[in-house]
Amino acid sequence: MFLTEKELRDTFWKNYNYSGRAIKHQFECDIRDGCADLVTIEVFQQNYQINAFEFKLSDIKKVLLQAKANATYVNKSWIVVPEEKKEVILNKYNNYLQENGIGVITVEEGGRWNVIHKPRFQQDIKINQALINMMMKNF
Q1: What is the pTM of this model?
Q2: Which helix (H) or strand (E) holds 116?
């Protein structure tokens, strides 16, 4: 069991990006009002894609709203929650996830993560100054 969202975030990030899959990333990225918890730029099947991740321990309604707000600016929008939230999300929020194209990743205490709902890939996204700054950093 995770005590803080930061612990959840750090555990996930260490195990998600162990191989350097994200070529760029930024925590607390200002892509919308309130910031996304994590935004990554990754290469998948020879194309660049932008992912946003929102981390929550318990407030599932809030994290879903945050992920929906992120979806305008990214190709894939994800929520990341502790493993023990898996059943409640799949049973109670499956329709919302489908309608809004949000992906769900659960994280076990030891760091193992699992995709329990795949997000919809959004081809057309809004690019704003925060994303341009992140993409061009160290260029």
Answers
A1: 0.95
A2: strand 113-117
